[in-house]
Amino acid sequence: MPISTEKNLDAKLNLLKDWFVSEQNFDKQSISITPHNSTLASGFSNETFVFKLTEKNYNSDLVLRLAPTGYRVFPEYNLKKQVSIMKVLFSKGFPVPEVLFYEGNSSIIGSEFYIMNYIKGEAPSDNPPYHLDPDGMMGRANSEKRRKVWIDWLFHLSNLHNLNLKDISLDDFYEEDINVNPVISDIEYYKNFLDWGMDGEPNNLCDDVIKWLKKNIPSDFNPNKLCWGDSRLGNVLYQDYKASALLDWEMSSIGDPVSDLAWGFAVDDASSLGLGIKKLEGSLTSSEAIDIWEKNTNLSSKNYKFYRIFSLLKFSIIMIRVAKKLMINNIIELEKDFYKNNYISNFLEKEFKQI
């Protein structure tokens, strides 16, 4: 999920130049950093921006990703974990950007950061939701191309879930989760996230869902796998409707991989059906995806419904902080209770009542 952070573009570019000169031995006289138009147009309001770096021995398009400062959507943000996961996946042949540099010293440019190669591509839009975006890549496509997008997403998701945890070196982050059922700590994390986001105000719907989740924790679950976390179409770049990059690993965790499948469809359904919008023709159904995923991975979808409710809860909790950010900064005019009464929470309530 995108996380806004406060930054001064010009100042950070100059500091980044100094860092390249001192830490990477770049030539001070020839180095140049030029932001892409998309970065300038956004006012550098996001935690990620694209730039061209030129030097006498270097000329490349790169992406800078920073840990958020100021307002946060998530209670914590582990940039080093993202770097480690992306490096592991890159080494295994997954289409993730190659991380070139990581800097954990937040005093360099004001926050911890990493730099990765830029990959061309277009993602299904989040805002507006791509089902409502006739000019976006999905709106322009025919039904066959849309289905191809979903199938390619599912292909890479299945490959991720076929990874053996013993073959990837992530013990520094997940050693305690590998041999237990981490959903217990995951529920507790989002309970604390909810309390933090609501600033002491009650949220009866989310509290009731959390109680239900605790009472219905699956006793029989898939082997623990590396889970993407934010596994949705909007986090995939496509070229000619073929995936070119898998992005945004800040929500990744160890757990039951069916949770990734549930999240992908829960987010898509909430952002279409939850708005009273019919899905675009060619969209994959959850039942089709489950059948394909089970055949690709030999894993079970038995707990899919549990993780679907959990996914909608997560989405609702995240939306609390996202909505408050929009309201605080007058980015969008919203109802004063939108942070807890919105299309996502309403969709959660509707499905929760049908359990």
How does this model look, in words?
There is one protein chain. The chain has 355 residues and is α+β, with helices and mostly antiparallel strands. It is globular and about 65 Å long. It has a five-stranded antiparallel β-sheet. Strands 6-9 form a two-stranded antiparallel sheet. A two-stranded antiparallel ribbon has the order 7-8. It has twelve helices and nine strands. 42% of the residues lie in helices and 13% in strands. A hairpin with a 2-residue loop joins β7 and β8 (242-246). The model is unreliable at 1-5 and 40-45 (pLDDT under 50). The protein starts with 8 loop residues before the first helix and ends with a helix. It folds into two domains: 9-117, Phosphorylase Kinase, domain 1, CATH 3.30.200; 130-353, Aminoglycoside 3'-phosphotransferase, Chain: A, domain 2 (Alpha-Beta Complex).
